[in-house]
What we know:
0% strand
Amino acid sequence: xxxxxxxxxxxxxxxxxxxxxxxxxxxxxxxxxxxxxxxxxxxxxxxxxxxxxxxxxxxxxxxxxxxxxxxxxxxxxxxxxxxxxxxxxxxxxxxxxxxxxxxxxxxxxxxxxxx
Length: 115
């Protein structure tokens, strides 16, 4: 891998990290909205339910299960994006180490010396 290749890859990773940072903010907001929708629907179902407290709770759980799953899915997508950022940061550090090794290698090469 040439020094140019290393620089290009590090730049690409940097751009991807920037894009993911924006995506994380959007995913955070989506999680908040999804859980809010779930809580509101649960409360409406519970308040409008019939029977004992436990019957109303369980009826409300059944009524909003799809919203709970949607909120859990939003959390999972958010966690996956955070993991992708962690992996990219690891790759960035590896690239920096390779770049430093290439610079050391380059500095050790005889340049302009008669052989």
